[in-house]
Amino acid sequence: MDSKILQLKDYIDEAEIVVFFGGAGVSTESGLPDYRSRNGQYTEMEEQNLDPKVIMSRKYLIENPEAFFNRPKKSVAIPEPNDAHKTLAKMEQAGKDIRVITQNVDGLHQKAGHRFVLELHGHNRTWYCMECSRVYEPEEVERDERHIPRCPIEQGIVRPSVVLFGENPDKGVLEKSRETIHKADLLIIAGTSLTVNPAKNLIHRFKGKRVVVINNEEIDTGKLKVDLYIEGKVGETFKAINE
C-alpha cells in the first residue's frame, strides 16, 4: 500500500472525531461533473462567455425563470455512491465518529448510509414553492406552458432546495458546521477548490491535530497547515484504504 494511504489510515485510526469536508470532486466518480476544474460546469459556462454567478443566481431565477429552467443540460445516469461515500459510511457504521460536511446537493452520502451529514448548499431531494413554501418531490412538480415549474395552489415558481448565488446557507447548518469542525481532531478536505464562502472560511475553525487534503489539484488553505496532501481521486483513495 502507498505510504500516503497508510499515513491517512493511521490518522483516521488515531482520531476520536473525523470531519470529512467535501466538494464536487467527491462525486465525480459517481458520474456527476464538478464545477471549477478544467472540465467543470462553471468553466464550460465561462468559455461560452456566461457568468455562473449570474446564471445560477436567485435574481436570475426570478427575472428569467424560463431561461433558468430550460438551460441545456447534459444527460447523466442516476448517480450512485462511490468508494468515498461507501467507505466513510462503513467506517461510521463500524463505530468510528465520522462527520460529513458537504458542499454537494446530491445526497450520495445519505444514500450510502451515512447518518451525520451537514449540507452547506442544501439539496435537490425536494423542491419548494417560492410563494407559499409548499414542498414537492422533484418528480411531482408540474410545469406551465413555458416549462416553468409552478405550484398548483399559488402558481408560484417551484425550485430546488439548493443555495444559489446571492443566497446564504441555512444559519443552523452553518453554525453546526462551525461547531463540528472546531471539535474534530482530524480534518479531511476532499474534492473542493475552496474558492467560495463559506467553505474557504469554515476550515479555519479547525483547532485539532491533523489536516489532510485529497484533490486532483493543489488548493490554497491559507494559514491552515496541511499535514498530508494526496494528489488523486477521492474515491480511489478511500478504496485503497478499504482494501
From TrEMBL:
An example Gene Ontology molecular-function term: histone deacetylase activity, NAD-dependent
Membrane-spanning segments: none
EC number: 2.3.1.286
InterPro entries: DHS-like_NAD/FAD-binding_dom (IPR029035), NAD-dep_sirtuin_deacylases (IPR050134), Sirtuin (IPR003000), Sirtuin_cat_small_dom_sf (IPR026591), Ssirtuin_cat_dom (IPR026590)
Superkingdom assignment: Bacteria
Span of domain Deacetylase sirtuin-type: 1-243
Organism: Marinilactibacillus piezotolerans
Name of the protein in question: protein acetyllysine N-acetyltransferase
Keywords: NAD, Transferase
Gene3D superfamilies assigned: SIR2/SIRT2 'Small Domain, TPP-binding domain
